[in-house]
Write a structure and sequence with these properties.
Mean pLDDT: 91
Largest sheet: 5 strands, mixed
Strand content: over 45%
Number of domains: 2
Keywords: Signal
Structural class: mainly beta
Order of helices and strands: HEEEEEEEEEEEEEEEEHEEEEEEEEEE
Low-confidence stretches: 1-18
Number of strands: 26
Number of helices: 2
Helix content: under 10%
InterPro entries: 6-blade_b-propeller_TolB-like (IPR011042)
Distance between the termini: 27 Å
Shape: globular
């Protein structure tokens, strides 16, 4: 307990360091803890997003991304002033993805080097008729791949897997919903509805070929967060409801055999709620949780190791989430 309190206290003290510009040289092995945009008050009943996209790093630094677009533009070019643009942090905290203010292109920033480069080919630009919030994006945990899921009205725009290392892009069917990559990025889990009003999970390899598919039981489709293992068939799911006060539980589903494990209680403080989960090595996962106060306001975030065979968790990092933020994003979210 003393160690956990010390981590929270240390994080709190670092939140008030002077922000650095995005071009400043980061500390060795510095990664992103979370990205955020602050909230300003127009009158007592109306808040609005204000200021630049900001990064709070593992060393407590605050970094301004002055080149990142904050307020999204519609396909018509109209600026939406009560929303913010899409923004992603890779699961390892090394990379961030955002719309560049100068030209509206999707770019990747490397936190260690400060380099910024657009996505390869046509992936850097929005398809005709889509605005900056008509898509969803998912990094692979290791930051090599980025999946782009477009929300076009006719659902004809293919979902993309972008290989950021080889700078290539492959297309997936447009009717899928992206859930996330395996830890090594080699597989991508998506879902789609069937004609029988059921849900099919499909796993694609990073080269765009279908690896596994299965119409999955309701307990799998109705719970989140979920995570795909490197084997491309094992899916971990966290159950957080439906009754208030229930302890979160975890089950493991095998797409190849259609078998699901018994529910296992996850050891967490009652104020913590699971937010994200990613498979690691062996029987361990990385889980992000949020902590709320009595007013149900989120006050802190924690990164934990979760043991799939016991439900035991160990806190690896923890930090305070300031009040009066319009939005904030964790690594892998």
């Amino acid at each position: 307990m003393r160690k956990e309190l010390a981590l929270l206290a240390a994080a709190a003290t670092t939140l008030f360091t002077a922000p650095a510009e995005a071009g400043a040289t980061p500390a060795p092995k510095e990664t992103v803890r979370y990205a955020w945009v602050k909230s300003c008050v127009k009158d007592k009943d109306n808040d609005f997003p204000c200021g630049p996209w900001m990064l709070t790093t593992s060393t407590g630094r605050e970094v301004k991304l002055t080149d990142a677009q904050v307020l999204p533009k519609l396909a018509s070019g109209t600026v939406v002033r009560d929303a913010v643009t899409q923004f992603q942090v890779s699961g390892d905290g090394r990379l961030v993805n955002y719309f560049r203010k100068s030209d509206g292109k999707l770019v990747i920033r490397d936190i260690a080097s400060g380099s910024v480069s657009p996505l390869p080919g046509g992936a850097a630009s929005l398809p005709r008729g889509l605005g900056m919030n008509d898509l969803d994006m998912h990094f692979s945990p290791n930051g090599r791949y980025l999946a782009i899921d477009y929300f076009d009205e006719k659902a004809t725009q293919p979902t993309l897997i972008v290989d950021l290392l080889r700078r290539t892009t492959v297309k997936l069917p447009p009717d899928v919903t992206v859930h996330g990559f395996s830890q090594n990025g080699a597989r991508l889990l998506v879902s789609r509805g069937t004609d029988d009003n059921t849900t099919e999970f499909v796993v694609y390899s990073s080269n765009g070929t279908e690896y596994e598919s299965r119409v999955v039981p309701q307990v799998v489709t109705n719970n989140s967060p979920i995570a795909l293992a490197n084997d491309g068939v094992t899916v971990a799911l966290v159950i957080t409801g439906p009754r208030a006060g229930m302890k979160p539980k975890m089950r493991v589903y095998n797409m190849a055999t259609d078998e699901i494990s018994p529910a296992l209680t996850i050891e967490l403080h009652k104020s913590e709620t699971p937010k994200l989960v990613t498979w690691g090595s062996g029987e361990t996962l990385t889980m992000w949780t949020t902590t709320s106060n009595s007013q149900e306001e989120i006050t802190a975030a924690s990164r934990r190791t979760l043991h799939a065979d016991s439900g035991v968790t160990e806190r690896r990092d923890s930090f305070r989430i300031p009040r009066k933020l319009w939005t904030w994003w964790l690594p892998g979210e």
